[in-house]
Amino acid sequence: MRLAACAVALLTAAGWAQAQAPDTAQHSGEALEWLQRIYQATETLSYSGTFVYQQGNRSETSRITRRAGATGGIEKLEVLDGTPREILRTRDEVRCYLPESRTVKVDRRSDPGAFPTLLPARVSTLQQNYEISLGKTARIAGFECRAVVLTPKDDLRYGYALWADTRTAMLLRSQTFNRDGELVEQFSFAQLDIGSVPSRRLRPPPGTRDWRIEKAGVAPADLQGAGWRFGSELPGFRKLAEVRRVMGDAQPVGQVVYSDGMAAVSIFIEPLSARTEHARIGLSGMGAVNVYTRKVGTFLVTVVGEAPATSVQRIGNAVEYRPQ
Amino acid sequence: MKSEISAFMDGELAGAELETVLGALREDGEALSAWRTYHLIGDALHGPAAPGGRCVARVLARLAQEPALIGTLPADIVPAQRPRWFVPSAIAASLSAVALVGWMVFAPRPTGTEVARVVEPVVIDTAKPAPKPALVRHPLSPSARDYLLAHQVYSPRNSLQGVAPYIRSVSAEAAGTP
After folding, report:
1. pLDDT digit string (tens) for A42-74?
2. Cβ-Cβ contacts under 8 Å, B124 against chain A
3. ipTM of model
4. What is the number of alpha carbons within 13 Å of residue A279 lying toward its C-beta?
5. Whole-structure pTM value
6. Number of CB pairs < 8 Å for A and B?
7. Which residues of A touch B107 (CB under 8 A)?
8. Closest chain A residue to the Cα of B138, Cα to Cα
9. Distance between alpha carbon B54 and the CA centroid of its chain, in Å?
10. 3-state SS of chain A: helix, strand, coil percent to 5?
11. Sequence-distant (≥ 6) Cβ neighbours of residue A266 within 8 angstroms
């Protein structure tokens, strides 16, 4: 497995160089405009297609259907490999259908702004932490695409290459690179139809009415007021949300989210319990996501983020509990 | 070598330094003895839950199998120098700082009502920095899916690529399925 991962890394280091296109020294203003168009396309287009999620030496194929609408639209993700897991997402709610456990996990936003979105007008704030440039063109799933490259200004975050259709700015491929230019994760459409989608294709999966429903019960929280300190925050990351939620059992879990506009890191805090006592202490992960778990007193602290392992670990080690 | 072993136990070594210590632990009886002694001190400080000798042996055996993986750690993960945990003054400070406290549950911001209190005492050790695990990345545990889902809801990637990044939350790998 390690050999295979190395092979993928070697193959894809070339991908980063390919996306960066030194021959076309474009103004960052044009790149920024492209990036804004990608955000707008994601918000306004209806489409359906098949995409492949690839990380390490593994890949998974899913079908994505999106119907744009005045209230933010509705989207469906169906995993086509293995058990048929599905996700239905609207602006206010995410429903996750898991057939193995016959469970529907429901995350509903507790107040306006609880699902923060990055508005196209604010895309320029990404320049504080990333160099944004235009890359090469390539043909992906039959679409002529242009790459927008985000190169991080420090080692705290990953780099990105975003390949968008030159006509509609629909994002066809998104690649995440580590600081050595190796691909750590890729989302890429294999087939895509842009245009109207009938609403019947966005219904919940059939036969799920008697499934167990697990509600996240998200509510605002004040973890700092309860004695938690999150140390010196990572440069460029600001706090997005501070909530409590239910996860699995009845114990409330605190969650604080930090983001730099591209990457986000969540800190989860919960009392040690039957559910958490077998938690895997240390570093784990998948693709661009790193998870760092440690015990603080009688609490379990779990940091989850699309950021390099060192950043996630740094945030986790800075968590302190100092009750008044 | 003893201070290097201590640094290694704190997860502070990388690259050539790490290789040196791993080599010493494999071949040098005195180094291994120091390693065991430090774990005994650690056991005494942390109570009976700390790993015992058999665990140390298992970890050493496992380390012997994995030199390549550990050897590729980037050099810059080594944090700035800080006092070693075996320094006597640190031990004294650590012991004196053990405190009994209660825990205030995350209070809802608007009203401040529903403030619950966990009754069992919490031992807080403020003097000793948290132990750092070696930076070897393991596969996600089966419980990771809940965290990934709860995290993904707030990811700014959603406004960039819609529902697609949610594949991480329902990935077969996130469920611990091979």
Report:
1. 989 999 999 999 998 889 999 999 999 888 899
2. 297, 321, 323
3. 0.89
4. 27
5. 0.69
6. 235
7. 221-222, 225-226
8. A284
9. 20
10. 20, 45, 35
11. A255, A256, A257, A258, A303, A304, A305, B147, B150, B151, B154
